[in-house]
Each structure stands twice: as structure tokens, then as C-alpha cells.
Hints:
Layout: E1 2-6, E2 16-22, E3 26-33, E4 39-45, E5 52-53, E6 56-60, E7 64-73, H1 74-79, E8 89-95, E9 108-109, E10 118-123, E11 140-143, E12 149-151, E13 156-162, E14 168-169, E15 178-183, E16 189-200, E17 207-208, E18 213-217, E19 221-222, E20 228-234, E21 237-238, E22 242-243, E23 256-258
Parallel strand pairs: 9-22, 14-19
Antiparallel strand pairs: 1-2, 2-3, 3-7, 4-6, 4-8, 5-7, 10-11, 10-23, 11-20, 12-18, 13-15, 13-17, 15-16, 16-18, 16-20, 20-21
Amino acid sequence: MFLTMLSFFEGYSQDITFSKTKSDTATTYNFVNKTYAPLFLKIKKIKHLEFFIKEGETFCNPQDSLVNVINIPKHLFENDTTFKTRDYIDVSYTFGKKLNKDSIKDHLYELPFQKKKRYKIMQGFNGKFTHSSGQSRYAVDFKMPIGDTIVAARSGYVVLAVSHFMKHGGKSFKSKANQIIIMHDDGTFAYYVHLDKDGTLVKVNDYVEAGQPIGISGFTGYTTKPHLHFVVRNYDMAIPIQFKKKKNIGEKSGIWVKN
């Protein structure tokens, strides 16, 4: 019997992954969460095949694991040399637990860029282009050239830092954006998306202060122009936020904002 590490999540790191154990009869996958964030693992079959998966949503505590979430009999691999587990199941996860509104702290956010900088809001709250979904309803897109410095808008722990993507494009690039995700002390999460290749200045489980440089702006993922996509979520839903500089930033597109 031996153990290896692998990931079903394109673009994600060894901090959120699977361990794979092979025995004489089967291959077993255990889910591993090395971050400080709680999360829900989501698995579903996309093709029918007779093997065990822990289907649906399963909660995983911070720095914990879920045992035996996928179990594949050895004969499936032996009978088909091209067999790949990812062809038969869809695997994803979401950070955090859904919070009651009373649990979310009132907070005035710093702007996610350096002092004396000025950027135009390409798309604000409820933007018709890509901010109409629950996940992005209260996102703000700052038109930012490649290479500018991004700072933390609120203190917290880094739970994801992806920086190896190089390209941008249409909807097929949705999962191919370099990004940083930071967990706040009330259990909400800030997403900083479309960073540059190798554009993360922090790593998973780092604690960062508001205003601290965390990344470099880029042009990766699902986008037509370089910009920073910034959003705060309660589990998988965007929440309205206010900024310390001016509370109504984000309510209108096309305006300039100076820090």
C-alpha cells in the first residue's frame, strides 16, 4: 500500500487536495484541508459507474481531512487503461459556512490598492455584464493595469493563493484566474481575482493586515480587460460592503476612485 497526493481542482494548491491510497483491491481518496478555513466539499457523479463516492456536500473543519470520500475498485483501472476518475465525477468546494446576518460584523473596508493611486470602476454592484449572479452581485471591478500592487482591504488569514495561470479569455477561463482569498474574523471571505502570473505576495495560512501588499494586478481568467475583481462573500453569496474612504463606492460604474 502507498500514498500519493493529487488534486481534482485545476489551479489549486497542495493545501486543498486529496491523498490517494492504493491497496490490492481498490484505490481510496481522502480529502485534505490544510487551511485555517472551514469548507464544504461537493462531489457528484457526471457519468454512471459502479464505484463509491460520498456524494453531495460534506463539511470539513480547518486543517482536517475527510476519509474515504471516493473508493474505486481495482478492476476498473485494470479493465480500462484510459480510466480517469475526473471523467466520472465533478469535485468542487466552497469556503466557510453560511452565516446569519447577525453574525457578520459591520466593517468599513480599505480600498484594495495603495495610497495616492486612482482607478476607474469598470463594473460595480449589480453590473449587467458579469455581476448579476449571487456570487458577484456586490463585486467591484477596478480598472487596473498589469503590474500594480493590490493590498488587503481587511485583515485576515490567506486561505487560497493561486498564481500560475498566464492567459485570459471567455467563459472557459472562469476557473483559470490567479487569485487570493482571505478569511476574516467573522467568517466572511474576500476574493481578489485576475492577478498576474506569479502575482501573489503571500501564501496560504499567512495572516495579513489591512493595507498590506498581497498581490500584483494582472490579466488572467474570464475577462476582456485587465482589472481587479474584488468581492466579499458569506459562504457562496456576495454581500454588500462599504469602504472607509467613501461608503457608497461600488454603487455606480464608470466613476474614478482615489485612495
